[in-house]
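Changelog-adjacent note: as of this version, every example in the card shows the full chain rather than a window. The one below runs 59 residues end to end.
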Amino acid sequence: MKCDGCVGKVRSTLSKFAGVLSVDIDLNNSDVTVKYESDHDLHKDFADALKLAGYPMDE
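Full-length structure tokens:
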């Protein structure tokens, strides 16, 4: 991520998932923290959605 537009796209992509409570993004470090309510791990779902949006996650 290099700009506020990227931040908005990532936030929008992740916020679409049911149960997401917040998406915090540190643009300087390209860190994303997602808080969500869920009975299962959504990490793979988040990774797949971000990859499709053009922002693949570093594992």
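Structural remarks: The chain is about 35% helix and 20% strand.
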